[in-house]
Amino acid sequence: MTEYIPAGAPRAAESRVAFTLRTTPEVVRVSPGTGDAEYAGVTVVGSVTGEEKITLNKVTVKILKGADSPHFASSLDGVEVSVYRSGWTYVGVQQSTFSFLHSSGGEMVDPGASLTVRLDRIPVNQAIGSSQVTVTAHWNNESGTGRTIFEIGKFPPGFYLRDFTSSHAEVNNGEDVELRWQASADATLHLMYEDAQYDVTDRSEFTVSDMRRTTVFYLRGSHGSAEQTLGTIVGVSDPDIEVNNLVVTGAVRADRLESRTLERIRIVPPSTEATATQPGQLPPETVAQLPVAEEA
How far apart are CA 81 and CA 98, in angstroms? Predict the structure, then answer.
C-alpha cells in the first residue's frame, strides 16, 4: 500500500491527533468509460500525540463525490465501513462525510493510542486527477479540533511507479550510487533530493556522484495533476559536516582544515601551559595545513 503525505500544513501545532492515510490498491485508477467500475479502499489511522490524555469524541472522513477531477468517488452508495477500536461505532454519512463516535460520547485516551477506520469498495470516478480526503478529529468535548488533508492521485489504467531502490544502502564518503525504478511509459518522472530536481522521464536509472552525506531521495511520478511519490535513503559513512558557526573549547585534531577564505577560520590558543602555543597557532600535535585565501 502507498502511505500518502498530508498536503500543506497537515495539522495545527496544537493538534493532539496525528493521522496517516493509505490506499488499496497501491495506485488508485479511474473507472473505465464502460464496464465495471474500479474500486479503491482508504485506511485512516489516528494516533494521540503529546504527553497528556485527551477525551476523544469524534472522527470524520470526508470523501468528495462527483464526476469531475477533484472528486474521488462516483457514488458513496455501498461503501463498506469499519472502525477498529472498542467502544467506537460508525454512525452514518452526510454531505460526503463519514462519522465515527464513541458509544459514551467520548473516550479518555492515552498518548500513543490509536484508532483505525476503513472505507472499502469506493467506486472511483472516471476523471484523472487529484482529490482531497479530509480527516478531522474532535476532542475534549469539542474544545479541540484538528484537520488533516490528503491529496489522493487517480491515475489512468496501466499507470505504475514501483521498485525505487539504490545500488547500495550505504556508501563511503565520495563514492557514487545508482538509483533504479520501474515506471509505465506514460509517466512523467522527477527525481528530487537536496533542494534539486531532475527530469528523469523515460529513464529507469540515475547515478548520483560523489556522495558526501546521508541523503533521502524522492521519485515523483505524475500523469496530469495526479501524482505518486516514492522515497529511498542512502547512508554515507563518515559524512561531511557543514556548520555555519563552530566553537571548539578543547583541542582540534585534523589532517587538514579547509576554508574558502582564511577569515572564516578563527583559531584561539588554549590557555593552559601544557598546550600553550604562539597566538594564532594550533597546538603542535594538531597543526593543520590551511589553504591560501581565494581571490575575490
Answer: 9
